[in-house]
């Protein structure tokens, strides 16, 4: 491990790390703390950028209050945190914004982000599919209401609907949709691992979760996977009975590490070297999933927040960006085209490096 400058205030740290010089063939990935939502910013050496998800609308997010207690006033919004990370990385615009699905913790930041920074293109899986149960009144941020607002907000701006198997090149970063709108990549590779132990969970948390736009990102020899809020039913289909993805070097835990995701066959088949959980203090990071992932051999588990509901299941403290619910440190990842990965934790001032597995290749 290599020590870097000691931590300071959250946004200043994010700025310093994001602006640190990178090798000519290193891609940067900033896992932005949006308090249990998702917002991950990829930046190529040439300055091209891809943001996957946008966190919460202003006023949402943050630690959930204990029963009977009032919610604390919100701090900086998801959109403000995204823009701060982008500016610190030297960006004046975000070239591509990919929305995996239309739940508030993924699409919600779009509405505040558009006035704050130029956006080149929006990418999604197409129309919302999640309808409210008969006889119920959907809330203002339910997908049935968020999707029309999203369409109105991006009207007149370039939009790309990606289907399973579609590809997009971004300055040498190859992005392939492995899942979209409930469909999966048609190719099949080697047999999945432990498929006989695959389990499902009826509580998907809403149809939009398993219709998430999931993408495989290739940077040189490095392979990164982001599946949005994919739940067990979609995760299992990607690797059972045969692997449609191939081994990966880094992936984000599906659905923030919630118990309706985290398929054992998925992780044992893809064998990621690093897994990042985009959880909040009291959102995601369920104990059963953290325990399962933490027990995987030769896999480093990282979290954006200490999971207060499952204190005994958290990963090692040095691999947690925020151990205090009041802080908002990001994780800054450097991805070499050789497949090597380095993760800087601003809270500890330490960078941890991982070499590429020789066996990590296509499926």
TrEMBL record:
GO molecular function, one term: hydrolase activity
All copies of domain Metallo-beta-lactamase, residue ranges: 36-280
Alphabetic keyword roster: Hydrolase, Signal
Residue numbers spanned by region Disordered: 57-78
Signal peptide range in chain numbering: 1-24
Bias kind Pro residues: ranges: 64-75
Top-level taxon of the source organism: Bacteria
InterPro entries reported for this sequence: Competence_DNA_uptake, Metallo-B-lactamas, RibonucZ/Hydroxyglut_hydro
Record-linked PANTHER family: DNA INTERNALIZATION/COMPETENCE PROTEIN COMEC/REC2, RECOMBINATION PROTEIN 2
Protein's UniProt name: Beta-lactamase superfamily II metal-dependent hydrolase
Native species: Polymorphobacter multimanifer
